[in-house]
Amino acid sequence: MKAKENHVLTICYELREDTAQGPLLExxxxxxxxxxxxxxxxxxxxxxxxxxxxxxxxxxEFTLEVEEAYGHPNExxxxxxxxxxxxxDGKLANDLLQTGTPVSxxxxxGQLHHGKVVSHSNSTVKVDFNHAMAGxxxxxxxxxxxxxxxxxxxxxxxxxxPDDIR
Length: 166
Fold this sequence. Notes:
Oligomer: single chain
Order of helices and strands: EEEHEEEEEEEEH
Helix content: under 10%
Mean pLDDT: 95
């Protein structure tokens, strides 16, 4: 069976920045693989393009340029958030104000956004909402562990459904 649309893939990989010797960014191993429904448009198109047609047991290695991955950081995604958003139970959460701290903030419409603290003042906190891998060239090395046809429910929902939920 080959990796193609409406098939569930189970893969393991190492993701490194820039090259095969670059800093390790993420590991999905045999015990904790990455399982996904291929062809739904929810993953990077270039990522899926590099996996398309592979078979079970086949290894892969490829690099996504910044433009194929998460793009370059956008200055418009670095926002001053009122410091009032960092109060929990009426008290300022000082531990969240440290540079580099990951934060999740709901916007005015209730949508959740993930970012990291860049700096803060007495009235605002500068938060970078760019994707954590924006600006990075991504090098993947891994293996296709399993491929199966997606169930009708997975195709309708457009995502993989674990065995214990189906």
